[in-house]
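Hi F.,

I've been meaning to write this up properly since the lab meeting, where we talked about keeping a consistent format for the predictions we share between groups. The idea is simple: the sequence comes first, exactly as it goes in, then the structure tokens exactly as they come out, then a line or two of notes. No screenshots and no reformatting. I'm using this chain as the first example so we have something concrete to point to.
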Amino acid sequence: MTERPGAYVHVPYSAHRCSYCSFVAVTGRETEGEYFDALVREVRARGGEVDGPVDSVYFGGGTPSFAEPANLGRVLAAIGETFGVSPGAEVTAEANPDDLDDGRLSALAGLGVTRLSVGVQSLEDEELEPLERRHDAAAALEAVRRALLLGLRVSADLMIGIPGQTRESLRRSLEAILSSGVGHVSVYLLEIEKAPRLVAMREAAPGLFAGDDEMAARWEEVDDLCTAGGLPRYETSNWAKPGEESRHNLKYWRRDPVVAFGVSAASFDGIVRRVNSGSIPSYLRSVGQSGTAFVSREALPPEAALREGVLLGLRLAAGVQVEAFEAALATLPSSDRRRMEDVFEAGLLEREGGRVRLTRNGALLSNEVFSLLL
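Output, unedited:
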């Protein structure tokens, strides 16, 4: 059975750029109208790029919840007219809690959003401050609850490694999130290398930052708590109630086609990856001239595509079929094949039930496995 394609839309506008953000994002709405006009034009110009209808649409950012909902609706309508949107499609919008008042939530639900990915990050006020989040813990939890009451599915994002965070404070945040009734939790390691303020903070007060062993212990704590709460891990950084896994993100890990629109957006038709300009002025100019804004195209050689499929599939708790793993392994030099067997002996990979998967320890040390497949 061929998987249905998905659609991604990048919305770069935000009320505030947080200290750790490394995505293409701008503060304010100065070019919002022009940008959404360009998105609609791009969608219409790229009809036929994948075989529709799409069964997932993901508005990422930036902060899509900061944009005018009517603009999101215009793009969603254009996607439906151009590619088709399946009945029961998953339509996700990334959101910050401070945007999610009752009016905004109702507007998002009204235009067809079925799922929110909410940037909670922490439910400890003193941990939100160095991240430069605009909401407090109480507001974040209330936003999540209001969205759930409206019938939306909610994924809550949390972070490991926030300055001043402890294992106990992370546990409190996670327990409160799980108690709210969310069906999906994403937990990421804070990467500070692109955040000058956080780099300076680490140099001035290194004791506020966890080391690698403590970060691993916190990840294991998250895994234990989510699993006990009925949200088993299905991907390295993602836990969900059965049936509430992110349909859209699964497409990336399974190498399914995703047609992507907007500044910096990366599309994949099953063979070729195309990436749009990362500059908003350049994107607007290119779409105005030709309807597209591609700046690069790449098609992996067949052997590299095999290895990439296994690498991405191993991020999933279900792993990959043994046959796919062995086919990828056969493309490696003999020295790397021997090293891969060492990985099994070290307990990072296991073969079971016709599949190869990372063990829990392997998930923590996955880069050692993935480096052999690059």
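Notes:
The chain has a mean pLDDT of 94.
The first strand starts at residue 6 and ends at 11.

If this format works for you, I'll send the rest the same way.

G.
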